[in-house]
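SAMPLE LOG
Freezer: B-3
Tube label: C17
Construct: single chain, 116 aa
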Amino acid sequence: MFWLLDTASPALIVLAMTLGYAGSAAVFGPMAAFCAGLFATKVRYTGVSLGYQSGSVLGGGLSPLVATALLTTSGGASWPIAAYLLIGALITVTCLAITGEPNRWARTDEAEPATA
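STRUCTURE (predicted):
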């Protein structure tokens, strides 16, 4: 995507933005259901909120500062920013692989229904 942006061609910039939005939709679409399955019903709202907000502060809040620092120290090259995002994606995929099926973490305190 950064290579497309570096070309400065309007058509390729629109393509890069379209790919970026498609990637965001693929991530944020199933995220709510995944996060909800990580916590039991009693603590679900608090657990999801704390996890999401702390991730937003650390990941989203610091990213512009890191990207600006990488851009200025690299002399205007965008590949260090792409590498930074790739490292973040690898960390995310590793955490998802470790987490596995989200419903295995969500324990409910409710009694199981009686079966006949």
